[in-house]
Specification:
By secondary structure, the protein is an alpha/beta fold. It has two domains: 96 residues, Urease, subunit C, domain 1 (Roll), CATH 2.30.40; 270 residues, Metal-dependent hydrolases (TIM Barrel). Strands 1, 2, 3, 4, 5, 16, 17 and 18 form an eight-stranded mixed β-sheet that branches. The two termini are 22 Å apart. Keywords: Hydrolase. InterPro entries: Amidohydro-rel, Metal-dep_hydrolase_composite, Metal_Hydrolase, Metallo-dep_Hydrolase, OTAase-like. GO terms for molecular function: hydrolase activity, acting on carbon-nitrogen (but not peptide) bonds. It comes from Saccharopolyspora elongata.
Protein backbone atom coordinates (compact mmCIF):
# COMPACT_ATOMS: atom_id res chain seq x y z
CA UNK A 1 0.00 0.00 0.00
CA UNK A 2 1.09 3.58 -0.62
CA UNK A 3 1.45 6.08 2.21
CA UNK A 4 -0.37 9.41 2.36
CA UNK A 5 0.42 12.56 4.34
CA UNK A 6 -2.21 15.28 4.61
CA UNK A 7 -0.69 18.52 5.81
CA UNK A 8 -2.26 21.64 7.31
CA UNK A 9 -5.57 19.94 8.06
CA UNK A 10 -8.31 20.74 10.53
CA UNK A 11 -9.00 17.35 12.11
CA UNK A 12 -12.38 16.87 13.81
CA UNK A 13 -12.54 14.96 17.07
CA UNK A 14 -16.13 13.75 16.87
CA UNK A 15 -16.24 13.01 20.59
CA UNK A 16 -15.33 16.52 21.77
CA UNK A 17 -16.48 18.45 18.72
CA UNK A 18 -13.13 20.26 18.53
CA UNK A 19 -10.90 20.79 15.52
CA UNK A 20 -7.15 20.35 15.81
CA UNK A 21 -4.77 21.85 13.26
CA UNK A 22 -2.31 19.11 12.42
CA UNK A 23 -0.84 16.81 9.79
CA UNK A 24 -2.26 13.32 9.32
CA UNK A 25 -0.18 10.32 8.22
CA UNK A 26 -1.81 7.24 6.65
CA UNK A 27 0.28 4.09 6.19
CA UNK A 28 -0.62 0.46 5.43
CA UNK A 29 -4.30 1.40 5.28
CA UNK A 30 -4.34 2.80 8.83
CA UNK A 31 -3.99 6.19 10.48
CA UNK A 32 -0.39 6.11 11.68
CA UNK A 33 0.15 9.53 13.21
CA UNK A 34 -1.26 13.01 13.60
CA UNK A 35 0.63 16.00 14.87
CA UNK A 36 1.75 19.54 14.29
CA UNK A 37 4.40 18.57 11.76
CA UNK A 38 4.25 14.81 11.27
CA UNK A 39 7.00 12.91 9.49
CA UNK A 40 5.70 10.71 6.72
CA UNK A 41 7.29 7.51 5.41
CA UNK A 42 9.80 7.81 2.60
CA UNK A 43 8.05 8.08 -0.75
CA UNK A 44 4.69 9.05 0.74
CA UNK A 45 2.28 11.16 -1.27
CA UNK A 46 1.96 14.56 0.43
CA UNK A 47 -0.98 16.93 -0.03
CA UNK A 48 -1.36 20.37 1.51
CA UNK A 49 -5.01 20.74 2.49
CA UNK A 50 -4.54 24.44 3.33
CA UNK A 51 -6.92 24.34 6.28
CA UNK A 52 -9.41 21.87 4.83
CA UNK A 53 -11.84 20.26 7.27
CA UNK A 54 -11.19 16.54 7.81
CA UNK A 55 -13.81 14.15 9.23
CA UNK A 56 -13.77 10.39 9.66
CA UNK A 57 -15.26 8.45 6.75
CA UNK A 58 -19.05 8.40 7.04
CA UNK A 59 -21.08 5.30 7.98
CA UNK A 60 -24.62 4.63 6.72
CA UNK A 61 -26.15 2.00 8.99
CA UNK A 62 -29.19 1.22 6.82
CA UNK A 63 -28.68 0.65 3.10
CA UNK A 64 -29.79 -1.84 0.45
CA UNK A 65 -27.00 -1.85 -2.11
CA UNK A 66 -28.91 -4.35 -4.26
CA UNK A 67 -32.14 -2.34 -4.00
CA UNK A 68 -31.92 -1.09 -7.57
CA UNK A 69 -35.69 -0.50 -7.85
CA UNK A 70 -38.39 0.54 -5.42
CA UNK A 71 -40.58 -2.29 -6.73
CA UNK A 72 -39.27 -4.92 -4.35
CA UNK A 73 -41.82 -7.46 -5.56
CA UNK A 74 -40.59 -7.26 -9.16
CA UNK A 75 -36.97 -7.38 -8.01
CA UNK A 76 -37.32 -11.06 -7.11
CA UNK A 77 -37.74 -11.95 -10.76
CA UNK A 78 -34.76 -9.99 -12.06
CA UNK A 79 -31.48 -11.56 -13.14
CA UNK A 80 -29.00 -11.78 -10.23
CA UNK A 81 -26.20 -10.60 -12.51
CA UNK A 82 -28.24 -7.54 -13.52
CA UNK A 83 -28.92 -6.76 -9.86
CA UNK A 84 -25.22 -7.14 -9.08
CA UNK A 85 -24.35 -4.65 -11.82
CA UNK A 86 -26.76 -2.15 -10.30
CA UNK A 87 -25.34 -2.77 -6.84
CA UNK A 88 -21.82 -2.01 -8.11
CA UNK A 89 -23.05 1.33 -9.42
CA UNK A 90 -24.82 2.08 -6.12
CA UNK A 91 -21.75 1.26 -4.05
CA UNK A 92 -19.46 3.46 -6.12
CA UNK A 93 -21.82 6.40 -5.76
CA UNK A 94 -22.01 5.88 -1.99
CA UNK A 95 -18.22 6.04 -1.76
CA UNK A 96 -18.15 9.27 -3.76
CA UNK A 97 -20.56 10.78 -1.21
CA UNK A 98 -18.09 10.00 1.57
CA UNK A 99 -19.61 6.80 2.95
CA UNK A 100 -16.60 4.56 3.45
CA UNK A 101 -18.55 1.93 5.44
CA UNK A 102 -22.19 0.87 5.09
CA UNK A 103 -24.39 -1.68 6.84
CA UNK A 104 -26.71 -3.53 4.47
CA UNK A 105 -29.87 -4.69 6.22
CA UNK A 106 -31.38 -6.86 3.53
CA UNK A 107 -30.15 -8.21 0.22
CA UNK A 108 -26.35 -8.05 0.19
CA UNK A 109 -24.31 -11.13 0.99
CA UNK A 110 -20.76 -12.42 1.39
CA UNK A 111 -20.08 -12.09 -2.33
CA UNK A 112 -20.61 -8.32 -2.39
CA UNK A 113 -18.51 -7.85 0.76
CA UNK A 114 -15.67 -10.07 -0.46
CA UNK A 115 -15.63 -8.41 -3.89
CA UNK A 116 -15.19 -5.01 -2.24
CA UNK A 117 -12.36 -6.26 -0.03
CA UNK A 118 -10.63 -7.89 -3.01
CA UNK A 119 -10.89 -4.73 -5.11
CA UNK A 120 -13.41 -6.11 -7.61
CA UNK A 121 -16.00 -3.55 -6.52
CA UNK A 122 -15.32 0.11 -5.87
CA UNK A 123 -17.40 0.99 -2.85
CA UNK A 124 -17.74 1.23 0.92
CA UNK A 125 -16.67 -1.48 3.33
CA UNK A 126 -19.81 -3.63 3.46
CA UNK A 127 -21.27 -5.01 6.67
CA UNK A 128 -24.09 -7.32 5.63
CA UNK A 129 -26.95 -9.27 7.15
CA UNK A 130 -27.99 -11.42 4.19
CA UNK A 131 -31.73 -11.78 3.78
CA UNK A 132 -34.08 -10.45 6.44
CA UNK A 133 -36.49 -12.86 8.12
CA UNK A 134 -40.21 -12.36 7.59
CA UNK A 135 -43.27 -14.27 8.68
CA UNK A 136 -45.77 -15.37 6.05
CA UNK A 137 -47.77 -12.29 5.11
CA UNK A 138 -45.23 -10.05 6.81
CA UNK A 139 -43.24 -7.09 5.57
CA UNK A 140 -40.75 -9.32 3.77
CA UNK A 141 -43.46 -11.35 2.02
CA UNK A 142 -43.76 -9.53 -1.30
CA UNK A 143 -46.50 -11.74 -2.76
CA UNK A 144 -49.79 -10.08 -3.57
CA UNK A 145 -53.00 -11.88 -2.62
CA UNK A 146 -53.13 -13.73 -5.94
CA UNK A 147 -49.49 -14.80 -6.13
CA UNK A 148 -48.51 -18.28 -4.95
CA UNK A 149 -45.14 -18.87 -6.61
CA UNK A 150 -42.23 -17.83 -4.42
CA UNK A 151 -38.51 -18.43 -4.91
CA UNK A 152 -36.44 -18.22 -1.72
CA UNK A 153 -33.15 -19.24 -3.33
CA UNK A 154 -30.33 -17.15 -1.81
CA UNK A 155 -29.09 -16.04 -5.22
CA UNK A 156 -32.46 -14.69 -6.31
CA UNK A 157 -33.27 -11.00 -6.00
CA UNK A 158 -34.98 -9.67 -2.94
CA UNK A 159 -34.03 -8.60 0.54
CA UNK A 160 -35.90 -11.15 2.65
CA UNK A 161 -36.92 -14.78 3.17
CA UNK A 162 -40.01 -16.29 4.76
CA UNK A 163 -39.66 -18.31 7.95
CA UNK A 164 -42.41 -19.35 10.36
CA UNK A 165 -42.49 -21.02 13.75
CA UNK A 166 -39.75 -21.34 16.34
CA UNK A 167 -38.00 -24.16 14.51
CA UNK A 168 -38.36 -22.37 11.18
CA UNK A 169 -36.86 -19.10 12.36
CA UNK A 170 -34.01 -20.88 14.15
CA UNK A 171 -33.11 -22.67 10.93
CA UNK A 172 -33.36 -19.49 8.86
CA UNK A 173 -31.23 -17.51 11.32
CA UNK A 174 -28.61 -20.25 11.44
CA UNK A 175 -28.55 -20.36 7.64
CA UNK A 176 -27.92 -16.62 7.31
CA UNK A 177 -25.25 -16.81 10.02
CA UNK A 178 -23.65 -19.72 8.15
CA UNK A 179 -23.37 -17.44 5.12
CA UNK A 180 -21.43 -14.92 7.18
CA UNK A 181 -24.13 -12.46 8.27
CA UNK A 182 -22.86 -9.83 10.69
CA UNK A 183 -26.38 -9.40 12.08
CA UNK A 184 -29.87 -10.81 11.58
CA UNK A 185 -32.62 -8.50 10.34
CA UNK A 186 -36.19 -9.33 11.38
CA UNK A 187 -39.41 -7.81 10.06
CA UNK A 188 -41.25 -7.12 13.31
CA UNK A 189 -44.04 -4.94 11.90
CA UNK A 190 -45.79 -4.06 8.69
CA UNK A 191 -44.23 -1.63 6.25
CA UNK A 192 -44.56 0.60 3.23
CA UNK A 193 -43.23 -1.70 0.51
CA UNK A 194 -45.14 -4.87 1.44
CA UNK A 195 -48.51 -5.54 -0.21
CA UNK A 196 -50.13 -7.89 2.32
CA UNK A 197 -49.82 -6.15 5.69
CA UNK A 198 -50.59 -2.94 7.53
CA UNK A 199 -47.96 -0.61 8.98
CA UNK A 200 -49.39 -0.86 12.49
CA UNK A 201 -49.34 -4.67 12.59
CA UNK A 202 -47.02 -6.59 14.90
CA UNK A 203 -45.24 -9.57 13.40
CA UNK A 204 -43.68 -12.73 14.83
CA UNK A 205 -44.60 -14.15 18.21
CA UNK A 206 -42.47 -13.47 21.26
CA UNK A 207 -41.27 -17.07 21.18
CA UNK A 208 -40.11 -16.63 17.57
CA UNK A 209 -38.40 -13.32 18.33
CA UNK A 210 -36.59 -14.75 21.35
CA UNK A 211 -35.49 -17.79 19.34
CA UNK A 212 -33.89 -15.57 16.68
CA UNK A 213 -32.17 -13.48 19.36
CA UNK A 214 -30.86 -16.67 21.00
CA UNK A 215 -29.36 -17.87 17.71
CA UNK A 216 -27.71 -14.53 16.97
CA UNK A 217 -26.30 -14.24 20.49
CA UNK A 218 -24.96 -17.79 20.34
CA UNK A 219 -23.02 -16.84 17.19
CA UNK A 220 -21.70 -13.60 18.69
CA UNK A 221 -23.99 -11.54 16.45
CA UNK A 222 -27.11 -9.45 17.11
CA UNK A 223 -30.65 -8.85 15.87
CA UNK A 224 -32.05 -5.67 14.40
CA UNK A 225 -35.73 -5.20 13.61
CA UNK A 226 -37.81 -3.31 11.10
CA UNK A 227 -40.53 -1.78 13.29
CA UNK A 228 -42.84 1.22 13.18
CA UNK A 229 -45.60 1.04 15.86
CA UNK A 230 -44.87 1.16 19.61
CA UNK A 231 -46.17 -2.37 20.22
CA UNK A 232 -43.79 -3.85 17.65
CA UNK A 233 -40.82 -1.79 18.84
CA UNK A 234 -41.34 -2.51 22.53
CA UNK A 235 -41.97 -6.23 22.29
CA UNK A 236 -38.88 -6.63 20.10
CA UNK A 237 -36.76 -4.80 22.67
CA UNK A 238 -38.25 -6.97 25.42
CA UNK A 239 -37.20 -10.01 23.39
CA UNK A 240 -33.60 -8.75 23.44
CA UNK A 241 -32.96 -7.17 20.04
CA UNK A 242 -30.05 -4.74 19.85
CA UNK A 243 -31.29 -2.31 17.23
CA UNK A 244 -34.53 -0.85 15.84
CA UNK A 245 -34.75 0.35 12.24
CA UNK A 246 -37.08 3.28 11.43
CA UNK A 247 -39.07 3.53 14.69
CA UNK A 248 -41.25 6.31 13.28
CA UNK A 249 -44.04 5.81 15.84
CA UNK A 250 -41.72 5.41 18.84
CA UNK A 251 -43.31 6.14 22.23
CA UNK A 252 -41.87 6.99 25.66
CA UNK A 253 -41.84 3.33 26.72
CA UNK A 254 -39.80 2.52 23.63
CA UNK A 255 -37.32 5.24 24.56
CA UNK A 256 -37.00 3.78 28.05
CA UNK A 257 -36.41 0.28 26.72
CA UNK A 258 -33.84 1.47 24.19
CA UNK A 259 -31.90 3.29 26.90
CA UNK A 260 -32.20 0.55 29.53
CA UNK A 261 -31.05 -2.10 27.05
CA UNK A 262 -28.24 0.01 25.58
CA UNK A 263 -29.91 -0.57 22.21
CA UNK A 264 -29.70 1.58 19.06
CA UNK A 265 -32.24 3.37 16.90
CA UNK A 266 -31.63 3.96 13.17
CA UNK A 267 -34.16 6.47 11.82
CA UNK A 268 -34.33 6.67 8.02
CA UNK A 269 -36.16 9.93 7.43
CA UNK A 270 -34.90 10.68 3.93
CA UNK A 271 -36.49 7.58 2.41
CA UNK A 272 -40.02 8.79 3.22
CA UNK A 273 -39.19 12.27 1.92
CA UNK A 274 -37.93 10.72 -1.32
CA UNK A 275 -40.75 8.18 -1.63
CA UNK A 276 -43.36 10.88 -1.24
CA UNK A 277 -41.70 13.00 -3.92
CA UNK A 278 -40.94 10.39 -6.57
CA UNK A 279 -41.40 6.87 -5.25
CA UNK A 280 -43.77 5.80 -8.02
CA UNK A 281 -41.33 7.11 -10.64
CA UNK A 282 -38.86 4.50 -9.37
CA UNK A 283 -41.22 1.53 -9.30
CA UNK A 284 -43.03 1.88 -5.95
CA UNK A 285 -46.57 0.50 -6.40
CA UNK A 286 -49.35 3.01 -5.78
CA UNK A 287 -50.67 1.01 -2.83
CA UNK A 288 -47.30 1.24 -1.14
CA UNK A 289 -46.95 4.93 -1.98
CA UNK A 290 -50.23 5.61 -0.22
CA UNK A 291 -48.77 4.16 3.00
CA UNK A 292 -45.87 6.62 3.10
CA UNK A 293 -47.87 9.42 4.72
CA UNK A 294 -48.67 7.17 7.69
CA UNK A 295 -45.04 7.10 8.78
CA UNK A 296 -43.57 10.28 7.26
CA UNK A 297 -45.16 12.69 9.71
CA UNK A 298 -44.09 10.74 12.78
CA UNK A 299 -40.45 10.40 11.84
CA UNK A 300 -39.07 13.72 13.05
CA UNK A 301 -41.14 13.55 16.24
CA UNK A 302 -39.77 10.09 17.01
CA UNK A 303 -36.21 11.29 16.39
CA UNK A 304 -36.77 14.26 18.70
CA UNK A 305 -38.18 11.99 21.40
CA UNK A 306 -35.22 9.63 21.09
CA UNK A 307 -32.63 12.42 21.18
CA UNK A 308 -34.18 14.04 24.24
CA UNK A 309 -34.35 10.64 25.92
CA UNK A 310 -30.66 9.86 25.43
CA UNK A 311 -31.05 7.01 22.92
CA UNK A 312 -28.08 5.82 20.85
CA UNK A 313 -29.13 7.16 17.44
CA UNK A 314 -27.19 6.02 14.37
CA UNK A 315 -27.36 7.35 10.81
CA UNK A 316 -29.35 5.47 8.15
CA UNK A 317 -31.13 6.17 4.87
CA UNK A 318 -32.94 3.07 3.45
CA UNK A 319 -33.20 4.49 -0.07
CA UNK A 320 -34.14 2.38 -3.09
CA UNK A 321 -33.66 2.62 -6.84
CA UNK A 322 -32.78 6.00 -8.31
CA UNK A 323 -33.62 7.65 -5.00
CA UNK A 324 -30.30 6.48 -3.57
CA UNK A 325 -28.79 9.68 -4.92
CA UNK A 326 -30.49 11.49 -2.01
CA UNK A 327 -28.39 9.65 0.59
CA UNK A 328 -26.72 12.78 1.98
CA UNK A 329 -30.04 14.63 2.32
CA UNK A 330 -30.52 12.75 5.60
CA UNK A 331 -28.07 15.24 7.15
CA UNK A 332 -30.24 18.19 6.15
CA UNK A 333 -33.49 16.60 7.34
CA UNK A 334 -32.09 15.63 10.74
CA UNK A 335 -30.89 19.20 11.31
CA UNK A 336 -34.49 20.10 12.11
CA UNK A 337 -34.04 18.16 15.35
CA UNK A 338 -30.34 17.47 15.99
CA UNK A 339 -27.24 19.64 16.32
CA UNK A 340 -24.72 19.25 13.47
CA UNK A 341 -22.16 17.61 15.78
CA UNK A 342 -24.70 15.03 16.95
CA UNK A 343 -25.66 14.21 13.37
CA UNK A 344 -21.99 13.74 12.48
CA UNK A 345 -21.51 11.54 15.54
CA UNK A 346 -24.49 9.43 14.45
CA UNK A 347 -22.72 8.80 11.12
CA UNK A 348 -19.33 8.11 12.69
CA UNK A 349 -18.74 7.12 16.34
CA UNK A 350 -22.28 5.96 17.15
CA UNK A 351 -22.59 3.92 13.95
CA UNK A 352 -19.15 2.42 14.64
CA UNK A 353 -20.38 1.27 18.06
CA UNK A 354 -23.50 -0.22 16.47
CA UNK A 355 -21.50 -2.35 14.03
CA UNK A 356 -19.05 -3.27 16.79
CA UNK A 357 -16.06 -1.52 15.26
CA UNK A 358 -15.37 1.30 17.77
CA UNK A 359 -11.90 2.74 17.43
CA UNK A 360 -11.51 1.11 14.01
CA UNK A 361 -13.89 3.26 11.97
CA UNK A 362 -15.70 6.53 12.67
CA UNK A 363 -12.59 8.14 14.19
CA UNK A 364 -9.33 9.81 13.16
CA UNK A 365 -7.38 8.21 16.02
CA UNK A 366 -4.10 6.40 15.28
CA UNK A 367 -4.67 2.71 14.59
CA UNK A 368 -8.07 3.23 12.96
CA UNK A 369 -8.76 2.49 9.30
CA UNK A 370 -7.54 5.46 7.27
CA UNK A 371 -11.04 6.40 6.09
CA UNK A 372 -11.75 10.12 5.92
CA UNK A 373 -13.38 12.93 4.00
CA UNK A 374 -12.15 16.46 3.29
CA UNK A 375 -14.43 19.50 3.00
CA UNK A 376 -13.81 23.17 2.26
CA UNK A 377 -16.70 24.28 4.50
CA UNK A 378 -17.08 23.60 8.23
CA UNK A 379 -20.00 21.13 8.61
CA UNK A 380 -20.38 22.10 12.28
CA UNK A 381 -21.35 25.58 11.11
CA UNK A 382 -23.37 24.35 8.12
CA UNK A 383 -24.36 20.67 8.05
CA UNK A 384 -25.47 21.02 4.42
CA UNK A 385 -21.77 21.00 3.53
CA UNK A 386 -22.15 17.20 3.70
CA UNK A 387 -24.88 17.27 1.04
CA UNK A 388 -22.52 18.83 -1.53
CA UNK A 389 -19.63 17.36 -3.54
CA UNK A 390 -16.69 16.59 -1.26
CA UNK A 391 -13.16 17.83 -1.84
CA UNK A 392 -11.67 14.40 -1.23
CA UNK A 393 -12.57 10.91 -0.02
CA UNK A 394 -9.87 8.62 1.37
CA UNK A 395 -10.48 4.93 2.07
CA UNK A 396 -7.83 2.68 3.63
CA UNK A 397 -5.26 5.39 3.01
CA UNK A 398 -5.99 5.66 -0.73
CA UNK A 399 -7.59 8.66 -2.41
CA UNK A 400 -10.72 7.17 -3.95
CA UNK A 401 -12.56 10.34 -4.95
CA UNK A 402 -11.20 13.77 -5.82
CA UNK A 403 -13.35 15.81 -8.23
Amino acid sequence: MTSLVLRNARLLDVETGDYREADLVCADGLIAESGGRATGPAGATEIDLRGGYVLPGLIDAHVHVAGITADTTALRGWSPSYIAAGAVRNMGAMLDRGFTTVRDVGGADYGFAAAQVDGLIRGPRLIFGGKALSQTGGHGDKRTAGVRVYDDHPFCGGSSRIADGVDGVRLAARDELRRGAHHIKVMASGGVASPADHIDSTQYSMDELRAIVDEANAAGRYVTVHAYPPAAINRALEAGVRCVEHGNLLDDEGVRLLVDNGAFLVPTLVTYWALQREGMDHGLPKGSWEKVAQVFEGGLGALDRAVRGGVNVAFGTDLLGGMQRYQSEEFRIRAEVQRPLDIIRSATAVAADLVRMPGRIGTLSPGAHADLIVLDTDPLADITALTKPLRMVVQAGEIVHQP
